From TrEMBL:
CDD domains: RNaseJ_MBL-fold (cd07714). Residues 21-219 form the Metallo-beta-lactamase domain. InterPro entries: Metallo-B-lactamas (IPR001279), RibonucZ/Hydroxyglut_hydro (IPR036866), RMMBL (IPR011108), RNase_J (IPR004613), RNase_J_2 (IPR042173), RNase_J_b_CASP (IPR055132), RNase_J_C (IPR041636). The keyword DNA-binding does not apply. The lineage of its organism: Bacteria, Pseudomonadati, Pseudomonadota, Alphaproteobacteria, Hyphomicrobiales. Keywords: Cytoplasm, Exonuclease, Hydrolase, Metal-binding, Nuclease, RNA-binding, Zinc. One of its GO terms (molecular function) is metal ion binding. The keyword Metal-binding applies. This is Ribonuclease J.
Length: 556
């Protein structure tokens, strides 16, 4: 009798971290499997640790090798951490993509806004619909989240059903879109769910995430009571929040001015797909200065402190059309993503110095998370009754707490894994059975680099300790043809004793050359290495840091 095919799962991003989501499911045996990819997202660079890096993406080298067996890529929703890497990485895979209408439309608009974006076809699947992708039958189950058309995926296979939750919460009163489909999730629980691959973002928080309806009510009250101009910043993709802001503006007899390209793009897509039906038309930034102060509301990008976004430019007083003054208000209808605190704090401080009133989620219920807290996680487990639960979409603490909660809720098997672990889901006992290549790619300008890239490593070192450049001209006989040239970048001018580093380095170069035998002086590589070591040593002696040193030897 033939052995049934194994169903395996491997996270290539999004486990042990928040962001950069990519999961793969395989069906078959050790020698050949059909693969299904779920999401292909980014996380964002940190200037302190990754200077010059815009985006971080998952390493897809494993999928490139398995390209002929990759049946398709399915999108749970259209947040950047779930679909932001597609434009850069899809040309290496060229597999079919499946998404619902809003996600597909937002992706199309994103491609249209990018220079030289490849033509990437997307197959649109109805919300609640099912599609066959190779041996996988994928069902899109509506869930509440902070963007329209978020879906959990029920992946039906001959080895069993896997529920991949994507990002979700339980919101009985969403202001936009369908609530989480409890009925269908309970039905799946009755059919039998082999594994639940679940969002852990808020697994450390007790209770339940509040509803969008409560935020909408708070925003109406705040906008109605505001005296001067009002600006609201939120995630551009949070269309429910955009609608709440529009409703608040209408209640307060204010015009909405949309500021920022990302916000304009989402608003356009939301109107095209029917999510802003009945919402008043918004105005462009040019009219802002012509409206009375108590009749305008600016809806801005930049809630995460992005330096080129609208709110940063307003806070720096260099936006061509939008200004704020003493007595005006800014509502941060968002949470600060870890790592962005400094950038957001800088914007808030600049606005405060201009006399602007700041309202954040510390002051009022102006933001709620799109992810489930602990009581919601328990509800889902009770509906779905999985045989196995694997926490994903979280850092180590989130995964640990989600796993602990699942065990306490009676899930028979709970397994915590890492990016790159190959997990057998069934049939038979689940467990980690191997490893697949995983890692990170860095988007550096228009170039993709791997995480060991020389450019990234050297730039990080240069950001910490500057760089020394030395040019030496030697004759064929091993004599100096001219004085060495020294250029120090990002290195202090003087040491604690007041001696200039230029002189210290020049002297070190000269004494090194003079102290070498002629044979080594005639060898450009040996000479360059001796000078490099001497320069780094003298700077370290007087500064305590060893900068990279580039030595160019020219033979004349």
């Amino acid at each position: 009798m033939a052995r049934p095919d194994e169903l395996v799962f491997a996270p290539l991003g999004g486990v042990g971290e928040i962001g950069m989501n990519l999961s793969i499911y395989g069906l078959g045996n050790r020698h050949q499997r059909a693969w299904l990819a779920v999401d292909l997202g980014v996380s964002f660079g940190d200037e302190e640790h990754l200077p010059g890096i815009d985006l971080i993406m998952p390493d897809i080298s494993f999928l490139e090798k398995e390209r002929k067996n990759l049946m398709g890529l399915v999108l749970t929703h259209a947040h950047e951490d779930h679909f932001g890497a597609i434009i850069d990485l899809w040309p290496k895979l060229k597999c079919p993509i499946y998404a619902t209408k809003f996600s597909a439309a937002l992706f199309e608009a994103k491609c249209a806004a990018e220079r030289n974006a490849p033509e990437i076809p997307v197959t649109v699947v109805p919300s609640g619909g099912r599609v066959d992708i190779g041996p996988f039958n994928v069902e899109f189950i509506p869930v509440a989240h902070s963007i329209p058309e978020a879906h959990a995926l029920a992946i039906h296979t001959e080895a069993g059903i896997v529920l991949h939750t994507g990002d979700w919460k339980i919101d009985p009163t969403p202001t936009l879109g369908a609530p989480t489909d409890e009925k269908r999730l309970r039905e799946l629980g009755e059919e039998g769910v082999l594994a639940l691959i679940g969002d852990s973002t808020n697994a450390v928080r007790d209770g339940r995430s509040p509803s969008e309806a409560e935020v909408a009510k708070t925003i109406i009250d705040l906008v109605k009571s505001a005296k001067g101009r009002v600006a609201v910043t939120t995630f551009a993709s949070n269309v429910a929040r955009v609608k709440a802001v529009a409703d608040a503006a209408r209640a307060a007899d204010r015009e909405v001015v949309v500021v920022g390209r990302a916000m304009e793009r989402v608003v356009q897509v939301a109107r095209e797909t029917g999510y802003l039906d009945g919402v008043q038309n918004f105005r462009s930034p040019e009219v802002y200065g012509h409206l009375p102060q108590d009749k305008v509301l600016a809806l801005c990008t930049g809630s995460q402190g992005e330096p080129r976004a609208a709110l940063a430019r307003i806070a720096n007083d260099d936006h061509p059309e939008i200004t704020l003054n003493r007595g005006d208000s800014v509502i941060f209808s968002s949470r600060t993503i870890p790592g962005n605190e400094k950038a957001v704090g800088s914007i808030i401080n600049n606005l405060v110095l201009q006399g602007v009133e700041i309202i954040t989620d510390r002051d009022a219920l102006v933001h709620v998370s799109g992810h489930p807290r602990r009581d919601e996680l328990r509800d889902l487990i009770s509906w779905v009754k999985p045989q196995l639960l694997i926490p994903v979409h979280g850092e180590a603490l989130h995964l640990h707490e989600h796993a602990k909660l699942a065990r306490a809720a009676g899930v028979p098997r709970v397994l915590v894994c890492r990016n790159g672990d190959l997990v057998k889901l069934g049939p038979g006992d689940p467990g980690i059975v191997g490893e697949v290549p995983s890692g990170r790619l860095y988007k550096d300008g228009t170039i993709l680099e791997d995480s060991k890239s020389r450019a990234v490593v050297e730039r990080r070192r240069m950001a910490f300790s500057g760089c020394a450049f030395v040019a030496i001209a030697m004759t064929a006989q091993g004599e100096l043809a001219d004085e060495p040239e020294v250029d120090l970048v990002g290195i202090p001018e003087k040491n604690r004793a007041g001696e200039t580093f230029d002189d210290l380095v020049f002297d070190a170069v000269m004494s090194t050359i003079e102290g070498l035998p002629k044979a080594r002086r005639r060898d450009p590589d040996a000479l360059a290495e001796s000078v490099r070591r001497a320069v780094r040593a003298v700077i370290n002696e007087h500064w305590g840091k060893k900068p990279p040193c580039l030595v160019h030897v020219l033979t004349v």
